[in-house]
């Protein structure tokens, strides 16, 4: 932790005295996956209170996305404590994390920095069941998947008559519950509204204001693929207020990210054998989301206990060891850290 505190302190100095708060969510597969969510607002507030009212706050973000409302709440809350807000992107800032970046006066990206489209995927009780395994979570519906189907009928198949389009829509409703489709429309409208409001927070000149609809169109609709990755050069070309980090800031941002990668196992596949060693099998606590500033660290963890299931191979199941695991979410905890 002292090494991380030292990097944080150096980064703040390199950024001209700006205060840095990090927000990291795990990009691992279940059971260690985490998303941006509104439950972070309360611990984030503790860090803002400790930082106090300052000229500039830098939020260093690493996340694959999550709740679309969380970025809006975080940006507005953080702006209560600073005159200028910047977002630092050493690596992944996808989906909802990109939305958060839109609310910044400046987005500082390293060469590995990635933004993404902001078109949301929705999950409701009315989503279609998994086609191969009904016990699996229901399939998420991507906004662009639905609009892509409609556009395919119009643009590629050349369907123009209202009557035929009604039939096409009827086929869609046969597969997807009407309330789920309604949720898609609401999510699409909400993400466009939030993106425009985020950009308007720091856009005052009339020329820049006219660019907001184009930026929203590009990020919410025209990139077509939710997993498309946007480099810092392309982000600049889209009209975002992106600056390329200097070499010293780039190194500090990346070194800071690496400390979280090591602690949280970011990007590491889940192998139950790693957690099934010993007799009795111990419980393991793994951090899945973290907020940190100089002298203070908040985290949410998952406690997992993996046990090996002995016995002969079962018909219909692939050969190999079998495991069962119990998991418990440990809510947000905040503690002071040493500043050496």
Could you state the order of secondary-structure elements as H and E? Answer: HEHEHEHEEEHHHHHHEHEEE
Q: What is the architecture of the largest domain at the second tier of CATH?
A: Alpha-Beta Complex
Give the class-level CATH name of the largest domain.
Alpha Beta
Number of domains: 2
Attribute tags:
340 residues; flat; 2-enoyl-CoA Hydratase, Chain A, domain 1; alpha/beta; two-stranded antiparallel sheet
Give an account of the 3D structure.
- This protein is flat.
- The chain has an eight-stranded mixed sheet, with helices on both faces. It has a two-stranded antiparallel sheet with strand order 5-6.
- A hairpin with a 2-residue loop joins strand 8 and strand 9 (296-309).
- It has helices spanning 2-14, 41-51, 69-79, 96-102, 143-156, 162-175, 178-200, 206-209, 212-222, 232-237, 247-264, and strands spanning 19-25, 54-62, 82-89, 106-109, 121-122, 141-142, 242-244, 284-293, 296-309, 322-336.
- The chain folds into two domains: 2-116 and 229-270 and 287-300 and 331-336, Alpha-Beta Complex (2-enoyl-CoA Hydratase, Chain A, domain 1), CATH 3.90.226; 122-184, no CATH class.
- With 340 residues, it is of the alpha/beta class.
- It is built from eleven helices and ten strands.
- Helices cover 39% and strands 22% of the residues.
- Helix 3 (69-79) packs parallel to helix 4 (96-102).
């Amino acid at each position: 932790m002292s090494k991380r505190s030292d990097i944080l302190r150096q980064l703040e100095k390199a950024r001209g005295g700006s205060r840095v708060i990090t927000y990291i969510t795990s990009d691992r597969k279940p059971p260690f996956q985490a998303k941006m969510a509104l439950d972070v607002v309360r611990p984030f507030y503790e860090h803002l209170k400790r930082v106090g009212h300052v000229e500039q706050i830098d939020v260093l973000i690493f996340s694959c996305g999550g709740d679309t409302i969380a970025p809006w709440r975080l940006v507005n809350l953080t702006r209560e404590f600073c005159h200028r807000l910047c977002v630092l992107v050493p690596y992944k800032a996808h989906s909802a994390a990109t939305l958060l970046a839109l609310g910044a006066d400046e987005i500082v990206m390293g060469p590995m920095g990635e933004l993404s489209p902001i078109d949301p995927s929705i999950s409701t009780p009315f989503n279609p069941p998994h086609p191969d395994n009904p016990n699996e979570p229901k399939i998420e519906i991507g906004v662009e998947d639905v609009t892509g189907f409609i556009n395919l009928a119009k643009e590629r198949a050349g369907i123009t008559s209202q009557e035929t389009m009604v039939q096409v829509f009827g086929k869609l409703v046969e597969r997807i519950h009407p309330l789920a489709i309604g949720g898609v429309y609401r999510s699409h409208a909400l993400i466009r509204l939030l993106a425009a409001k985020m950009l308007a927070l720091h856009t005052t000149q009339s020329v820049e204001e006219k660019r907001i609809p184009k930026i929203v169109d590009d990020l919410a609709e025209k990139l077509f693929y939710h997993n498309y990755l946007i480099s810092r050069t392309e982000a600049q070309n889209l009209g975002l207020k992106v600056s390329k980090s200097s070499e010293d800031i780039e190194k500090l941002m990346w070194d800071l990210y690496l400390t979280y990668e090591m602690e949280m196992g970011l990007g590491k596949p889940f192998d139950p054998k790693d957690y099934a060693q010993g007799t009795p099998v111990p419980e393991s606590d793994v951090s899945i989301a973290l907020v940190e500033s100089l002298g203070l660290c908040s985290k949410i963890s998952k406690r997992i206990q993996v046990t090996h299931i002995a016995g002969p191979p079962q018909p219909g199941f692939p050969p190999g060891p079998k495991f069962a695991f119990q998991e418990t979410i440990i809510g947000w905890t905040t503690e002071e850290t040493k500043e050496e």
